[in-house]
Amino acid sequence: MTLHENEIPADETLVRSLLKAQRPEWAELPLTPAGAGTDNTMYRLGDDLLVRLPRTADNGRSLRKEQEWLPRLAPFLPRPIPAPVHAGTPTDAFPVAWSVYRWIDGAEAGPDTVRDWSAFGADLAAFVRDLHRVDLLGATREDDGLDWYRGGGLRPCDAWITTALDDCRTKAGATLDVDTLERLWRAGLALPDPAGPHVWLHGDLKPTNLLARDGGLHAVIDFGGLSIGFPDAEHATIWDFPAEARRAYWDALDLDDATWTRARAWAVAVGVSGVSYYWDTFPAFVAECRARLDAILTDAAAR
């Protein structure tokens, strides 16, 4: 499935060739597809390893960032995160960085894997709190790859989010209340930018990046959006979860109304841009975005 015009083809034959050239001791291990997102394609390697291949050259930059920073952040965090074990180098066949990690057992957070959504929301808040408290370790937002847009202010995104909102009107039509979504986006824009210090950000704490085990939160994966910046956008994915998780998360972090309003604006932004960009290529991801936007609308109507 091709999602981007500049996508780099990857399949099992390619992965085998990369392993034979760079880690021959792993080249004959069983290799099975382990999912594909908007940025990476993944293969489970044997019982204990995971290969991640970026879809585009820009995504390769994200993997290099993970290789550098995840081993340094892991000791400070309350849940397992990916542990890189090989930094794959570019080749003629695959001209960007790729990576191998330790396999983490678990299943995507969802109704079949989470028993208590209030406890899940509180545990997710605890992870976010600890991540945001980690010392910056000498890193700044100006460092390579750590300046992702979601750690900045809302205003620089207004032009392309307005275009995405208009695109949603055309594509989704009356099935989506885009006028209310635009009002919620502009409510965030009307607020001052955050005034607090920059912190470490995961950047994309949606269900597919949270692994559950024994009914609760077990691990946090996919740090491709790792950045340094303001924390508001970090909270945007909480609308991907049931209302009881959202309430527990809010209470645990004691978020103020301004932070919540900006976080909701970020949630709108990511949702409408996903619908706009992937409408014709990734229906499953569009459905995820639609579900988030519907939850935002339901939540706003109840307030």
UniProtKB/TrEMBL annotation:
Pfam family, one: APH
Membrane-spanning ranges: none
Sorted UniProt keywords: Transferase
Name recorded for this polypeptide: Phosphotransferase
Ranges of residues in domain Aminoglycoside phosphotransferase: 31-266
Organism of this sequence: Streptomyces laurentii
GO molecular function list: transferase activity
Top-level lineage group: Bacteria
Residues forming coiled coils: none
